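Researcher: Go.
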Amino acid sequence: MKILHVVPSLDQMDGGVIRAALELAVYGQEFGIRSEILGIGPLNIPDCKLPCEAIHSLPLDQPRSYRFSKHLKPWLRERVSGFDGVVLHGLWLYPNWATHLICKERRQKYACFPHGMLDPWPVNGQGHLKRWKKQLYWRGREGKILDAADSIFFTTQRERALASATFRIHSHQRVVTPFGVSDTPKELVEPSRAELKVPPGHKAALFLGRVHPKKNVHFLIDAWLRADMPPLWHLIIAGPIDKSYQQSLQELIHSKRCNIHFVGPVSGDDKTYLLQRAAWFLLPSKQENFGIAVLEAISHGCAVAVSNDVYLTDQLHAQSEVLPLHDESWIEFMRTRMQDEGWRSALCKKDQELVLPKFAIKDIAQAWAATLHQVFTVAPRSEMNPVLSHDPGLEYV
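Model: Structure:
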């Protein structure tokens, strides 16, 4: 089966959508899914595992923020019929609207993968202007795109439920298809960038991801400062960041000795080094439709503490460090359990025993392939049968 993934950007600095599409494309190959990626702008994934000939980059035109490209419709008209199905990643941008129109014109099946962009926080939690704009977009375009889709993919049951509460989505197949995590690479002693090295005898807590207000990094820094962490502890903030947001974060730590380091984007061996060297992975996000970085941290032997607004927490265990977004909860955790090596080691072992087996990448890829075959080869969506994962708590169709 040949699948086209349409993404708004090929740059990992713009968020995790392209990374998710690439992972699904790479690991689906073993199960007969041949995938190609179509995106706007140049490719910027340093450790991309998909062959270059399977990735198609189109020039970005004005308005750039809408990810518009005048080349997109002609490209699709010429080639979209050569695919068995199309998966639209993300929402609210031009590539989805253009692809919807061409798929309708060519009678091509497609599915939508919102990646959490239908959740209450992205729609209603970023101020009145963005909420008003998205309500208009929904009525004018986005609602039509989803209504015409053959299926909608979600990564967790909670994301699926919340999407239905945010907008009225007409009844059709809503597939829960989580991401998986691959085997951990060999241990790395040194990073390629010298400034990433954690000194011997020192402890590191790691935030890894796009440094954005949704991820609540300002909350994390404030809790770290108020916890008055010992001098041997370092907070490493790794990921792309807007300059104005970084300036506001720097103002929080101005003139304070607190061992907080902004190291920018990391990938490949440097990412692996940080995940292996960090004692804790911290994610106090306001909304996370899945949380693949949490799984990556667990697989690298790093303990995790996350907010209860990270939807992956629904699949963690009773002793997991799942904290409410109350500053006192995080401060108390940092002062006590985070510095308890015995507790950290026991938690890592339990995470690897109870959590990782649910998300083995080969099982996830096999279920993903089965889902695509059902969506794009079985005709009426009302006649589709459920395909359940190895974990009965995760429903794929």
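Model: The chain has 13 helices and 13 strands.
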